[in-house]
Structures are given as structure tokens and as C-alpha cells.
Design brief:
Largest sheet: 5 strands, parallel
CATH topology: Rossmann fold
Organism: Elysia crispata (lettuce slug)
Active site: 87
Helix content: 25-40%
Bound molecules: 3'-phosphate-adenosine-5'-phosphate sulfate
Number of helices: 11
Strand content: 5-15%
Disulfide bonds: 272-295
CATH class: Alpha Beta
CATH superfamily: P-loop containing nucleotide triphosphate hydrolases
Number of domains: 1
Domain Sulfotransferase: 78-278
Order of helices and strands: HEEHEHEEHEHHHHEHHEEH
Shape: elongated
Strand order of the largest sheet: 3-5-2-6-7
Number of strands: 9
Structural class: alpha/beta
Oligomer: single chain
Keywords: Disulfide bond, Glycoprotein, Membrane, Transferase, Transmembrane, Transmembrane helix
Length: 347
């Protein structure tokens, strides 16, 4: 008489059922449910063994999706910075770049390498938006370029960081600064552009706003030239796609931003986001963009004061040597009204 007991079927079927469940659950998780990508707090991630000050040197390149990968989102430190100049379209450039699927960017100027340095690198990281490892983070604080101390800190943070710089016709930059200052005052205290200019010692004031070259030259003494991309506000205003494309190439990102991402808004007088473009929802967290119109908020694109001919002549005369110096330094020439006729050839 055999004493062997028949195996209980449930001992086999239950684990088999559970394994199948887990397997299909996994497939669903990876292939069908993008939202299921786990979002881990940054400190749970290895960050590719990077130490805080030696940032990851992985290639910034075309993301290769070669199969199911469980991609963790994390708060990553910037690999590119917009370091200057203020009143030159730095906010629009940052916003326009951030529509690229491989770019994320905090809206606020974090000023980490200037006054907020004491808050520490972990604070800086905590301010960054979540991103995947295929995306790069870009932070914008236009005052970085003016401070040597900040440039040295940036170098210590990451000597390979990419540096984005935007400059502007000095005349428009002065008008922009004036509009910015007047907007802070009650209307009754507003003064004319001419009075505003002559409130200050003329030469020094105009030089301060026009001499991009000295500031960039100083930055060149900290970082090699090839780590800089210098563009012009006028190009961003006229043809934002071309300026975003320059950055795509410079950052070695796949070409993703096309003409249909932007539309010219007659009321605003500037290019704005095309709100029906599939990329648009990615800027909804951007507090510098009006989500209804897709335009930059009202503090960007103010009316400029008209110019008295004599004053214009004086400003152009004073700033011309600095404009020449800039074009020579960066080996580029921008299409700047009032200056073009004096500058016959580049570099
Ligand atoms: N598309 C688009 N929409 C709105 N504004 C645009 C755009 N492109 C460039 N600009 C110009 O950006 C100028 C503001 O420059 P910044 O953002 O660098 O100013 S700030 O330093 O951050 O305050 C702002 O200057 P003002 O015109 O003087 O307001 C704009 O001329």
C-alpha cells in the first residue's frame, strides 16, 4: 500500500497565479503606465556616483530608449546656466528653452552662486524641478556674470558647466532699464528718459549698460570660450526658434523645437507659445508665462520711451567702442539698429 500523498494542487496553482500577476503587473508598469515611473526623493538616488561638487559628466546627448527602463525622476543640479545679462531677454530665453522635452528649469532666479551660496548645495538641488537623467536642468540668474566670486564658485561647482549669455543693443537695454525703474514708482514720480539718463554721470552710466565685453572677457578668464554661447535679444525677439536651435546644438540636444511651437502675438508684439502645441503643457508651471495667452507675463515686454535724436547720438557714440569690442571678442556680429552703419565688418 503506497503511503505517497497526492500533492495539493493549490500549492502549485497559487504561487503560479501570483508570479503571473506580478509579471503582468510589471509589464503594465513599464509599457503602459508612464505615470507609474517611481519618483524617488533625490537622496535615494546614486546620481551616477557623482559627488556634490563633481557633477555627472555623462554625455548630454540624444536619449536612447533601448528597452524598458525604470527611469527615476530626481532633482538634478544644473548642467547649464544662463548667467547674463539682465534686461536682455534672459527670462524669455529660459522659458523658450524649457519647452524642449530634454530641458527642465526652475522659474525663480535662485542666485545660488551669489547671495544664496550660504544655503548650501542641497538647498540648491532641492529647488530644481524633477527630471530624468536624459534631461538637463538649466538655471537662470543673470547677475552671475557680473560677479567674479560667483564665476569662481560656478567653476568649483562644475568646471564643465555650459554657460549661456544673452546681450542686447545698448540703446534698447537702457530703455528697458528705464521702463523697469519707472514701473516701480508711482506714475506721478515718473521722469522722462532724458532726465533719467542725465541724473547719472553720463559716460559711466552708459558704459555700465553697454560694456558687455569686459564682463564676458572676465568670464573667459575663468572658463574656456567653448563653454559659452552668446546670443542676442534682438534675434530671440525676431526668430525665437533660431535662438533655441543654437542652444539645442550647443547643449547637444536632439532638435525638438520647431516653428509651430511659437506664434507671433500682435497684441503683445512678441512671439509667445502656441498654446495648442503638444509641448505647451510643460510650461504650465512656469510662472513667467501667462497660461491663457502663452505670452511672457506683463513685466516682460514693456513700452519703451521715445528717444531724443541728440541723446540717441550721444548714447551710440559712447557705446560704439564697447559694441565693437564685444563683436571682436565673441567673433560674432548682431544686427543692432543704430550701430550697423558704423560696424562694417565683423571681427
Ligand atoms: N518673446 C518675448 N516676450 C517678452 N519679452 C521678450 C521676449 N523676447 C525678448 N523679450 C525681452 O525680454 C526683456 C526682459 O529681459 P529679462 O527677462 O532679461 O529681464 S530681467 O533682467 O530678468 O528683469 C523685455 O524687455 P522690455 O521690453 O524692456 O520689457 C523684452 O523686450
Amino acid at each position: 500500500m503506497s503511503s505517497a500523498k497526492k500533492p495539493n494542487v493549490s500549492v502549485i496553482i497559487v504561487p503560479l497565479f501570483l508570479i503571473t500577476l506580478v509579471f503582468f503587473g510589471f509589464l503594465y508598469h513599464v509599457y503602459l503606465n508612464d505615470a507609474a515611473v517611481p519618483i524617488l526623493p533625490y537622496y535615494e538616488l546614486t546620481q551616477d556616483n557623482c559627488t556634490p561638487y563633481s557633477l555627472c559628466k555623462e554625455n548630454i546627448g540624444i536619449p536612447q530608449r533601448s528597452g524598458p527602463v525604470l527611469e527615476a525622476k530626481a532633482r538634478r543640479l544644473p548642467r547649464a546656466l544662463i548667467i547674463g545679462f539682465n534686461k536682455c531677454g534672459s527670462a524669455a530665453w529660459r522659458s523658450f528653452l524649457s519647452i524642449h522635452p530634454d530641458i527642465v528649469s526652475p522659474t525663480l532666479e535662485l542666485r545660488f552662486f551669489t547671495e544664496n551660496h550660504k544655503l548650501g548645495l542641497e538647498w540648491y538641488r532641492s529647488q530644481m524641478p524633477l527630471s530624468t537623467s536624459n534631461q538637463i536642468t538649466i538655471e537662470k540668474t543673470p547677475r552671475y556674470i557680473r560677479s567674479v566670486e560667483s564665476l569662481r564658485r560656478i567653476y568649483e561647482f562644475n568646471p564643465d558647466v555650459k554657460l549661456l549669455v544673452i546681450v542686447r543693443n545698448p540703446v534698447s537695454r537702457l530703455q528697458s532699464e528705464y521702463a523697469h525703474e519707472m514701473a516701480k514708482l508711482p506714475e506721478t514720480s515718473n521722469i522722462s528718459f532724458t532726465d533719467w539718463i542725465y541724473r547719472n554721470p553720463f559716460e559711466g552710466f552708459v558704459t555700465y549698460w553697454s560694456d558687455y565685453a569686459s564682463t564676458i572677457r572676465r568670464a573667459f578668464s575663468v572658463f574656456p570660450h567653448h563653454q559659452f554661447l552668446v546670443v542676442s535679444e534682438e534675434d530671440l525677439e525676431k526668430d525665437p526658434v533660431s535662438v533655441v536651435k543654437q542652444a539645442e546644438m550647443f547643449l547637444k540636444l536632439r532638435p525638438a523645437v520647431t516653428n509651430d511651437v511659437f506664434v507671433f502675438n500682435e497684441t503683445k508684439g512678441f512671439y509667445c507659445f502656441n498654446t495648442s502645441h503638444p509641448f505647451f503643457p510643460s510650461v504650465l508651471e512656469n510662472h513667467e508665462v501667462d497660461v491663457m495667452s502663452g505670452c511672457m507675463i506683463e513685466t516682460k515686454g514693456r513700452d519703451h520711451p521715445s528717444l531724443d535724436a541728440n541723446l540717441l547720438h550721444r548714447i551710440v557714440n559712447t557705446s560704439l567702442p564697447y559694441v565693437r569690442d564685444l563683436f571682436r571678442l565673441i567673433h560674432k556680429q548682431f544686427d543692432w539698429k543704430y550701430y550697423n552703419k558704423y560696424i562694417q565688418e565683423a571681427c
